[in-house]
Structure formats: structure tokens, C-alpha cells
Amino acid sequence: MQRLAFFRRRFLAALFAGALTGAAAQAQPAASADAAPIRIAMIEGLSGPMANTGEAVYRNLVWATERVNARGGVKLPGGSRPLEIVRFDSKGQTEEALSGLRAAIDRGIGVVVQGNSSAAAAGLIDAITKHNERDPSRRVVFLNYSAVDPLLTNERCSYWHFRFDAHADMRLSALMSVLREDKALKSIYLIGQDYSFGQAVLREGRRQLAAQRPDVKIVGDELHPMARVKDFAPYAAKIKASGAQAVLTGNWGNDLTLLVKAAREAGFDGTFYTFYGNALGAPAAMGDAGIGKVVAVADWFPNVPTKASETFYQAFRQRFPNPADDYVHMRMQLMIEALAQAIERAGSVEAGAIAAQLEKAEVTLAGQTARMRAADHQVQQTLAVAVMDRQGAPGVRFDVEGSGYGFRIIRQLTPEQAEMPHQCAMQRP
């Protein structure tokens, strides 16, 4: 049944392959139905309070592999092979993520992807590095699409870990390029999830504010338990009472949705500077109160003003027409393209051979390019800052999740502008 579903998905993807890859891609033969798939272990929270983010990841990865498979799969000396995503539920817990890793290794899977939780990513990096030293015949390579604690490609960098998202300091610097120009801003409230990523955002936020806007007073600075707060009304009340004109947060998933909803209900009318304000219920939660007030940063938005970007997004919406299934991640698409490129160049599915080629990866899709920096395995790509507005307003052709609200691009940074130095001392095998 799973194999039938796999080929049905591949057939659907083929219908839209031309929109993304052109007539030449359409002419490619499909991967052989008899070829063993190259399995990719997705270790992600697929149950619990953050399950919606895990399912969004799964849709992105499935669509990305469908595109590769529709053009003939990954070409190897012994013939083309399709890609296949195998799900492992971490339940949002690091120990469960490590359990998923062990299960993936036991099943002979050599490529692991994960992203939602920097704490889980750190655990996976350590476990994979140690495993590869102990058992070089079953080495594993780790592709990270969303865990953005800067430490992961700095002090804790690993040869076996590749990050395809801009890390938190890079994202914050992009946000700050807009915030520092808001001369009316005099007070700000910092709030985040109490784990490594949330702590890193607030720490770097304090540093960048002091350096670039020392005139802005920090009137609140707190962390809250991750994925355990059901009622953010007390936090919203404190934000309102502080007199803050803006909030800076790295919150994601329900922790962001519930926070912005509570702030709206409390009557807070300031600006939200966010990492993920464009996603997973946040625009609908804010409603009209978010117009011109919710700012987000990402590698890409649906309203990037190019024809290639528009075609790419329309193809995704055709594949997943339910508005609840919105939220496509360009970086995840580029990640799968980089993996396919690395396997083909290596001529092998062995993790060490793949890693050696991933260090040199450079891929382009729908006008977006990602280049892997070999020194620290941190991808270099464009970053965009956008502000929430009503669908149909200038620059807002597409909305988010059928909410009627989308994001208008207000700043784009080239890879060179977004790049930051690193402190990685890479230990190569």
C-alpha cells in the first residue's frame, strides 16, 4: 500500500514538474519502479503540541522528493533510484529523536533530516558524530533544515552536519536592518521559548540592540516553557503593561500563534518582530491588528516578486490545495536538490561520499540559490524581511493558509549581505 501511495504521489508531481523544471525535465524517464529507493529518515515531532509543524515539514519533503523522482530520480552508476521519506516521530523530545536515530540506523538509512528544535539537533549531531567514529561501515549524514541555534555551525560544528537554514544571528541581523530604521521605536519587549534557540535569540537581540539601537529601552526580557503554555494572557498583559512599542520573539508553532492571539485580545497594538510570524496560524490569529505590525524574516516568501517564484508557489498550492496545508519552505526544497546533486556527484549513497560532495553543493530552484560553505557547513543564501498586509494590497498576491493576509517584501539581503563569520574548527575524518 505504501509503495502504491508513493508512485501515486510521484505521478501527481509529474503533472507539475514542467512548471518548475521545463520541458527538458518532462522528457526525462521516471525512476525505475523496481529500483530500491534511497531512504531519508525524517526525525520530527509528529505528535503533541507542535505536530502541525512536523506535518508541514513532511509535506515539503514529500513534494521535494516527488520533483526529483518525476525527472527520473537520482542517477547512479547502477541506474536511477527514487528518493523516499521515512517518518520517525520524536514527539518533540530530544530522547525520542535519539531513539528515532537508532531506529533509522538499524534500518540501514544513512541520511537523516531534522530541524524543529535546536536541542534535538544538538543531540543528533553528538550522537551521529560518535556513531560514525565507532561504526564507520554504517555512517550517517545529517541535514538540518530549521534548527538555527548558532552554536550548531560554530563551537559545536560537525563534519556530518549540514545546515540549510540561516542561523538565528543571521536572521536577527536581517530583522535588525529594518528595526534600526524605525526611528519612532523607543521601547521593546523580548520574549522567547526557554531552550537553546530561544535563549540564543534573546541573547543576540540584546547584543544587537545595544550595538545598533542603544536608544531603545528593553522593558521586558523573559523566557517561557516551550510547548507547555496554553494561556498566554498573563504574558500579553505584561507586554501591554510595560508600555512596549514592539515585541521581539523567535517563537514558533503554537507558542507563536497563542502569543500573538493573546496580545491582540489584550489590546496590544505594537509591532511584532518575528522569525516565524508568517506561519502556522499567526496571521489569522492577529487579523487586521497585524497589518503593518507583524514583521517576519525568512529565506523566501510566496510574494517574492519574480515570475519563477510565483510559478513555484502556485505549483505547491496545486499539489496541496487545502489552505491548511500551506507554508512551503524554499530551503527544504533546496536541501533535497543539494542532496540529490551530492549523491549523483559522489556516485554513491554512502554517507562519507555524500558529505564530501555536500561541502561543495550549490543549487538553484525558482531563482533561489543556496551555496554550502565548506568551512562550517552553514548554507549561504538570500534572506528577506516582509511585513503582514491584507491579500490584494500591492505586493501581496498570495495569502497565508487562506487567512486573507499575506506578507509584502520590504527588504532583501544578498547571500553576501546575510553572511556572518564563524568559529567552527572543523574536524574532518
TrEMBL record:
<comment type="similarity">
    <text>Belongs to the leucine-binding protein family.</text>
</comment>
<dbReference type="InterPro" id="IPR006311">
    <property type="entry name" value="TAT_signal"/>
</dbReference>
<protein>
    <submittedName>
        <fullName>Branched-chain amino acid ABC transporter substrate-binding protein</fullName>
    </submittedName>
</protein>
<dbReference type="Pfam" id="PF13458">
    <property type="entry name" value="Peripla_BP_6"/>
</dbReference>
<dbReference type="InterPro" id="IPR051010">
    <property type="entry name" value="BCAA_transport"/>
</dbReference>
<dbReference type="InterPro" id="IPR028081">
    <property type="entry name" value="Leu-bd"/>
</dbReference>
<feature type="signal peptide">
    <location>
        <begin position="1"/>
        <end position="27"/>
    </location>
</feature>
<feature type="domain" description="Leucine-binding protein">
    <location>
        <begin position="37"/>
        <end position="392"/>
    </location>
</feature>
<keyword id="KW-0732">Signal</keyword>
<dbReference type="InterPro" id="IPR028082">
    <property type="entry name" value="Peripla_BP_I"/>
</dbReference>
